[in-house]
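ugh ok so i messed up the first submission bc i forgot one of the chains. this is the corrected input, ALL of the components this time, i swear. 269 residues overall. if the numbers dont match what u have on ur side tell me asap before i send this to the collaborators (the ones from the other lab, u know who)
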Amino acid sequence: MEIIIKEDYDQICEEAVTIIHQTWKKKNDLVLGLPTGRTPLGVYNRLIELNQNQEIDFSRVVAFSLDEYLGLNKDHPQSFAYYMEKNFYRHINIKKENIFRLEGTPKDVDRHCQEYEEKIKSQGGLDVLILGIGRNGHIGFNEPSSSLSSRTRVKTLAEETVEVNSRFFENKDEVPRFCLTMGIGTIMESKMIILLASGEDKSEAVQKSMEGPVTASVPASILQLHPQAKIIIDQKAASRLIRRDYYQWVYRNKERVSDFLERKKTISD
Ligand code: F6R
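and heres the new structure output, hopefully the right one now
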């Protein structure tokens, strides 16, 4: 797990986009897992810009949605399908057949979830999964107490998540109570995970997830076990981290480590 602390929201988005761009340069048929919410918007905007400047080409890229409200169809303005289309897909040259979504109104929910898992596998698995984090430490809609080995399935949203998300609806009663989400087991199989967090309201969840015990009570804490998890956060989200100075020290020395290893290799060659 690598904790990267940047000054502000713009810088965390910039960092995430740089990583995605570099990964795409090595694998043009990148398989992405993508969330909705406030946090990833800056990343989507920058990727759109790169695509329009022809610096990144999405024609071979495949994208999977991380989650969806159960009961909302894809044309509902609060559905995650609608969000992804409006904020990202319609602005880039991704092929329709390369976009995979969890349906909000599937005929057979269990079967749909099973097939979603199979589709991810048939694409060779996720290369990069972007995540936000809930104030209660949720990732995707895996709320506290979700099994750490769960697969894509139906979940009941926590009351606090309903509360937080009610800002997008007329009132709290309109917020769906159920959702479909990639499971924590599914998330952990992504080759790389980029978790983004910005703002003071995320600082407690960030601290518990990154420095506390690995526990189902804080689902994001599982990322401590992922070999390629990059936690990209701004100063406010990092404000409660106990070892904040150490993470910044490691990051500042990152290039020196590669130089050092490169020099050592040359000498021994
Ligand atoms: C959204 C999702 C959620 C959000 C999280 C943070 O698809 O899976 O886990 O990432 O609730 O939301 P924001 O970014 O709005 O603070």
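quick check: The pocket of fructose -6-phosphate is lined by residues 35-39, 66-67, 80, 132-134, 138-141 (CB under 6 Å). that seems consistent at least. The chain has a mean pLDDT of 96.
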